[in-house]
Structure formats: C-alpha cells, structure tokens
What we know:
The complex is a heterodimer.
Chain A: E1 3-7, E2 10-14, E3 19-26, E4 30-38, E5 45-51, E6 56-59, E7 62-67, E8 72-77, E9 86-96, E10 99-104, E11 108-113
Parallel strand pairs in A: 2-11
Antiparallel strand pairs in A: 1-3, 3-8, 4-5, 4-9, 6-7, 7-8, 9-10, 9-11
Chain B: E1 5-7, E2 10-13, E3 19-24, E4 31-38, E5 42-50, E6 53-57, E7 64-68, E8 74-78, E9 87-94, E10 106-107, E11 111-115
Parallel strand pairs in B: 2-11
Antiparallel strand pairs in B: 1-3, 3-8, 4-5, 4-9, 5-6, 7-8, 9-10, 9-11
Amino acid sequence: KNQVEQSPQSLIILEGKNCTLQCNYTVSPFSNLRWYKQDTGRGPVSLTIMTFSENTKSNGRYTATLDADTKQSSLHITASQLSDSASYICVVSLTNQAGTALIFGKGTTLSVSS
Amino acid sequence: KAGVTQTPRYLIKTRGQQVTLSCSPISGHRSVSWYQQTPGQGLQFLFEYFSETQRNKGNFPGRFSGRQFSNSRSEMNVSTLELGDSALYLCASSLLQERRNTGELFFGEGSRLTVL
C-alpha cells in the first residue's frame, strides 16, 4: 500500500535551535518527493522537490535529504525562527500508466517559541 | 504574477445543502487539482483536471464532483452536505508535462467550509 509516514506528529523547540523532521514512504513507482510548509489558515507552499537521483537540496535555512534506498527523507531546519512555526507536509509522487498520484503525509506541526 | 485564487474563502452551510467552490489557477497553468484537508486526515486528494478532462480521482463519494473550463478555471461541487464535509478545501495548479508530473504545485489559500 502506498503510504507516507511523518514523525514526529508535533514538535516544540526554542528559537535559534535546529530541528529535523522525518518522512518515511512506501510508494512505488517513486517519481519525486516534496516538502511543503503550511502556515495556519494558509495554503501549503513548496520548500523543496527532489527526484530519485538527488540526495540533498537546500532552500535557505531548510535542507532536505533523500535516501531512495531506505525510502526516507528528512527536513532539517537551521537556526529556527518564530516564523518557522507551521505544519510541514511530505508529499511523494508516483507515476504509472494510469497517471500521476500524490501521496500525502499527515504533516508535522512545529512550534517555535521565544 | 497572480497566484491561485479560491472563492469563497469562508462559507457556512447546513446539512443537505450543496456548495460550489471556485478556483482560478495561475496564468498558463492547465493542471488543477483539489484537496480536502481536515485535522485528523491531513490533505486528501479529490481530483485533478487537465485541459477540461479529469485525469485522476481520489477515493471520495460521488457527492463530490468537479469540472474545468476552457480557460482552466475549475469548480468543485459537494451535494447533500454532511457534517463530516467540514474542512479546508484547497486547490492547486501546476505545469503538467504529459504523464510525468514533475511540476511544482501552487496552492491557493483554500475555502473553509463549515457544515452545521
């Protein structure tokens, strides 16, 4: 069954600290993996997108990694800011003869406190 | 460049009624997809349209339907509303390259539906 599992479900950290969010997937055939940030009451915004051959991709203080062998991805946030408080959603795309489907994780809610 | 526009942003309906939500994609984007987001289930795929044709459909009952117009604008309709339909409905547009969707999704702000 195609699934995307994210951990932890929620996380609280102090401003300035680093954190890492995890995403494990059992999706086949794999096409790409994306991380989205969703502020409360807003639509998700893409942070990174990685294909099978990419191991690391950065977007400012956000760095995503992908291990296609173990089917794991992580999102590392460096020097967290209050504005990083949001839900982070991992999305895996698969493409087959029937078309393209997106499998969503349920997200990790990050709270950054001062 | 204008983003994805969804209307209305908020609406309240009662059980049994129907609702129509609208989505205007980014100019040039011909792929539009719809999602339901609830606290317990997260984002769930409803359907995807490309060039007025439904390409994919999620696991939702027939009460949920959609369509896309020639200008790529899309609407979704939910009939015979149930309490469980209360959710944030998100629309996303993208550049679709044939059968391989390597395009990035651009989401609207969503339409928050409350069913009483």
